[in-house]
Amino acid sequence: MHCLEELRELLNRHLYLSFVTQEAHYTLCPAQTRYQRHLDQFQYAPGRTVFTTSYLNWDWHAEEGGQLCLHLAERLQDLLLSRNRLVLFRSVDIQHEVLLATRERLSIICWLRYRSALPIPVAHGIV
């Protein structure tokens, strides 16, 4: 997490932001899967603000799909999977999706978070 903490501190210092923490996970997405269009903001957990992803795939080709598609106000922007590519955007207000990929995808996903004023509810009945 050391690099993520440095990124958070760098953005806070130079862009006058106030992120207090980060949340991250590795993703391994099987071939023939996609993520549908969405925002990374939940009603009861509104702290996720900036999304970062770094792709870990080697030798990825455009015809294998899996592009990150940002739904910007004026256009769609497709970003090809590429090793060592870091993507940052405001996931609180930019809808995005991952297009169908024909092979397994690997990435690290992180959200930079503000402190949430709302409590995270306890889910009842989950087994």
TrEMBL record:
InterPro entries in the record: HIF_prolyl_hydroxylases (IPR051559), Pro_4_hyd_alph_FE2OG_OXY (IPR044862)
Domain Prolyl 4-hydroxylase alpha subunit Fe(2+) 2OG dioxygenase: 30-113
Biological process according to GO: cellular response to hypoxia
PANTHER family associated with the record: EGL NINE HOMOLOG-RELATED, HIF PROLYL HYDROXYLASE, ISOFORM C
Keyword Phosphoprotein: no
GO molecular function: ferrous iron binding; L-ascorbic acid binding; peptidyl-proline dioxygenase activity
Keyword Manganese: no
Name the record gives this protein: Prolyl 4-hydroxylase alpha subunit Fe(2+) 2OG dioxygenase domain-containing protein
Species for this entry: SAR324 cluster bacterium
Annotated keywords: Vitamin C
Pfam families in the record: 2OG-FeII_Oxy_3
